[in-house]
Amino acid sequence: MLGIDEFPNKYVLTRWLKDVATQTNPDIRANRNKILGGGDELNSMVRDIYGIVDSCLDRLVTNMEDLSLYKDKQQQLKIDVEKNTSVMPPMSNREVIASYYGVTSNEEITLKTPKGIRNKGCGPYKKRMIGEKEKAIEKTKKSRTCSLCRLPSHNARSCPKMPAPSASK
């Protein structure tokens, strides 16, 4: 490529390298096993395998024939592994959290709608809500009665028992 073997570091942005795994540090690739709860022995074995594959690729990168043979062997090994192991479906976020904390969640949630609840200040009415205490006080209040006959629903001015006013004055 135009006789350029390597780009100077001042022209390479760090954001371009955020997904690049270095050859000297296989720990970066092995971090996914720590999430799944693998022990130190598992992590060590995974790091060793990555190191072996990386060193083989480093040696074979200059010889295309040997690299092609190595690729074919790796593909055959992958096919053998896929035949001999079962594929687990990916876990959902809930399942990952449940396995991490060791608790299971009840998937069935039953909610009943509240009956007769209306918050103060809401609804089509501009009327304020009257509490139970106020309702009880209203029931105990005496209603107004006529001062002449002592019957409710009218006053002394409109009382039917009141004598008719005389026309002479």
The portion of residues assigned to helices is 40-55%
Task: Give start-end ranges of low-pLDDT stretches.
Answer: 23-36
Shape: rod-shaped
Order of helices and strands: HHHHH
Distance between the termini: 128 Å
- Strand tally: 0
The number of helices is 5
Q: How confident is the prediction overall: mean pLDDT? A: 77
Biggest sheet layout = none
Using only C-alpha atoms, the radius of gyration works out to: 44 Å
DSSP strand (E) fraction?
Answer: under 5%
Judged by helices, strands and strand pairing, the structural class is mainly alpha
The assembly state of the depicted protein chains is: single chain
Overview of the structural elements:
This protein has helices at residues 27-35, 40-60, 64-84, 93-101, 132-140. The chain is mainly alpha-helical. It has a domain at 9-101.
What tags apply to this protein structure?
169 residues, mainly alpha, 5 helices, rod-shaped
List the helices and strands and how they pair.
Blueprint (H helix, E strand, L loop, with lengths): L26 H9 L4 H21 L3 H21 L8 H9 L30 H9 L29
Helix pairs in contact: 1-2
